[in-house]
Amino acid sequence: MATIDLSTPPPATPGGLAELPRRLSLTLPELRFAAEQADGAPLPFEIVAGPAGGPTGGLGARLGRTGGVVDAEAYAAALAALHEPRSSLARRGLLVDTAVDEGLLGAVGLIAKPAVAVDLDVAAGGVRARAWHRQRDGAVATLATADGLVFELAWFPVGRWADELARVAVLPEEAKTRESAVPRYVDLPHALVDAAGEAVRSHRADLLTVLAAEHAGQVRYADDRPVPDLEVVPLLAALAGEPRGRLRALVADVSGGSTTTVGVVSWVLLADGWRALRPRRHDGVDRVVVERVDPGDLATELAPVLAEVSS
Predict the structure, then answer these.
(1) Cα distances (angstroms) measured from residue 125 to each of 40, 61, 169, 250
(2) CA-to-CA distance for 311 and 299, rounded, in angstroms?
(3) Helix crossing, 207-214 with 229-241: angle to 10°?
(4) Can you spell out the DSSP letters for 39-54?
(5) Which of 37-46, 55-64, 75-84, 289-298 has the lowest mean pLDDT?
(6) Crossing angle of helices 190-201 and 229-241, rounded to 10°
(7) Strand order in the sheet with 185-189
(8) CA 180, CA 186: separation in Å to the nearest integer?
(9) Count of alpha carbons within 13 Å of 254, Cβ hemisphere only?
(10) CA 257, 262, 263: angle at the middle one, nearest 5?
(11) For residues 83 and 70, what is the distance between their CA atoms, to the nearest angstrom?
């Protein structure tokens, strides 16, 4: 016969279940209530909707039911339909009598008072998601939302941070539509990228040939070979025309009570997936490296910036 031991459990084994991220899905009212119970911990965002300063006031009120007004009204209606936070948290076992779950309170407190802050903004396929990662003393808490109504709150040891960063950049398979005309790695002048983008946006793609000729030999592969002139124009057209999304990660040092921006990581979504955009300066010329990356590379991209914060 099997025996079930209900005595004090042994300490958690490193790398075991105790180190796995704990995740909670919270509505905005539930999240705000938890923040109030955590000594009024401030949240890393502000949502403004409705007549008191939101899109439905001011110019929108004079012009009638514009898109911004309709969106704000829909958001306000959805927010009003959410359950009262005390009762919904109690039903889920996250509020017992008047005590909020300790893990939930600790995560909200870490979100409010971190040493390192990473703000992530991802837009792809018509959807925009925001995520706030906060780290202090070997622990990380994250908050994420795609609609401002429902949030995912998670907390875990810092050793799991790389995996959580990768989750932010994961794309559905349908987002990768075809092969890209941009090579896996290309290094080119920033001025050329900027001018080519403006030409395509202005419906003057005929200027790409002129721009390519002006920068002949300056577009290069990873091994420093120049990209053949005949391939530069379609490459520029793809860089300007393929993007369907972007990812931006901003790292800040908040350990001293004030916020100091340390660095920014930028990715762009092309036809076959993400490309990292890495600015650099060579021989007095501002250049940008465009390199194929996968979601798991986001932690690697951020590592030098995070090291600067912790140094």
Answers:
(1) 36, 30, 13, 22
(2) 17
(3) 120
(4) TSPPPS-----STTTS
(5) 55-64
(6) 60
(7) 22-27, 150-157, 139-145, 127-136, 116-124, 245-253, 260-270, 273-282, 285-292, 185-189
(8) 13
(9) 19
(10) 145
(11) 23
Phi-psi group of 53: left, alpha or beta (phi > 0 → left; psi -120 to 50 → alpha; rest → beta): left
Tell me, letter by letter, the H, E, C secondary structure of 181-228: CCCCEEEEEHHHHHHHHHHHHCCCCCHHHHHHHHCCCCCECCCCCECC
Token reading at 65: 């039911």
Q: How large a percentage of the chain has pLDDT more than 90? A: 74
C-beta of residue 111 within 8 angstroms of C-beta of residue 140: no
Residue 137: both structure tokens together: 């003393």
Half-sphere exposure of 105 (CA within 13 A, CB side): 12
Rg of the chain over all Cα atoms, to the nearest angstrom: 24
Q: Which two tokens stand for residue 296?
A: 């798991």
Q: What's the sign of the alpha-carbon dihedral 220, 225, 227, 229?
A: positive
69 in Cβ contact with 55 (< 8 Å)? yes
- What are the pLDDT digits (tens) for 74-111? 888 999 999 999 999 999 999 999 899 999 999 999 99
